[in-house]
Amino acid sequence: MVQYKYTDDSHLLISETYIGVSVEVFKSDIFHNDISCRFKIVPRYFSTITTFKKNVPNRLENSNIYHLDVGTMYPNIIITNRLQPLAIVNSTVCAQCNLNHPNARCQPNNNNNNNTLSFHELPQETQLSIERKHLADYCRNAAKKKNDLNEVKRYNNLIVIYDSLQFAYKCILNSFYGYVMRRGARWHRTEMGGIVCTTGSIIIKRTRELIEQIERPPELDTDGIWCVLPATFPENHELIARNPSHPKVIISYPCSLLNLIIKDQYTNDQYHELVDKDKHIYEIHSENSIFFLLKLMILI
């Protein structure tokens, strides 16, 4: 019997996919650092900047063109959230986990506990299918057939899959969505691809919302944003360090504003690090390797 999938509003689901990252162009114009632009600034978003004239929100002045780019965004989203191929789990996997206890921080907020069914409440066909699967697994493990052709075929297929997965992770560095949704792509979990692409898309959109408080950005890329900022907007910020060999540290101010959003909203505060394999002891700490890099474009 063929099992069909349906959407939440009862429409037949022929193929399952997800929304990828978006590339948008908002303005088409000639941008030059000695051509004046009109800015309409919202002062309350930049109240902590003391060197920026916030008392003149509407101004006409020269501009600087920046390309703010998230360094290797997709791999860093995967690393920060530990989205290994087995990261997308279900209730069966969670039941076998060593960290499965009521106070576990990795437990999702699930308010639909009444939707679960016990085995005897399942349809007869589903019960028979589960029983046959467990019986076949038991017989295969009990017999321990060394020359099982099905096992040989399965492991040969795994060789091809793992070789393709290695190629897939290389493609992530260049075009994540382009590979995952390619026909015949061997990606372990479609859900994982959806999480990565959605997270990247939301990061860029949140960035756009902040930049729009100064000026509408000309273009959004898959992992970055082009923006035009006033020439009087702080470009760099100097920090005093305790290290005598490097007493001063200079950071990009536009990137630091965006990285503050990344830190507050996209830090994984339940990152588990195994410290004792025998006793299954994990150290929990915060992890975030997603950050913006600055590329300054100067038109001459």
Distance between the termini: 67 Å
How many DSSP-defined strands?
A: 13
Q: Whole-number radius of gyration?
A: 26 Å
Per DSSP, the total helix count is 7
Strand content bin: 15-25%
Q: Judging from the principal axes of the Cα atoms, what is the shape?
A: elongated
Mean pLDDT: 77
Your description of this structure?
With 300 residues, this protein is α+β, with helices and mostly antiparallel strands. It has helices at 73-80, 91-95, 124-143, 149-172, 176-180, 190-211, 253-266, and strands at 5-6, 12-13, 24-25, 37-40, 58-61, 63-70, 219-220, 224-230, 236-240, 248-252, 268-276, 281-287, 292-297. It has a domain at 18-88 and 189-300: Palm domain of DNA polymerase. It is built from seven helices and 13 strands. The strands form five sheets. A five-stranded antiparallel beta sheet has the order 3-7-8-6-13, covered by helices on one side. The longest helix has 24 residues, at 149-172. The protein is elongated.
Give a short overview:
The chain has about 300 residues and is an alpha+beta fold. The chain has helices at about 75-80, 90-95, 125-145, 150-170, 175-180, 190-210, 255-265, and strands spanning about 5, 10-15, 25, 35-40, 60, 65-70, 220, 225-230, 235-240, 250, 270-275, 280-285, 290-295.
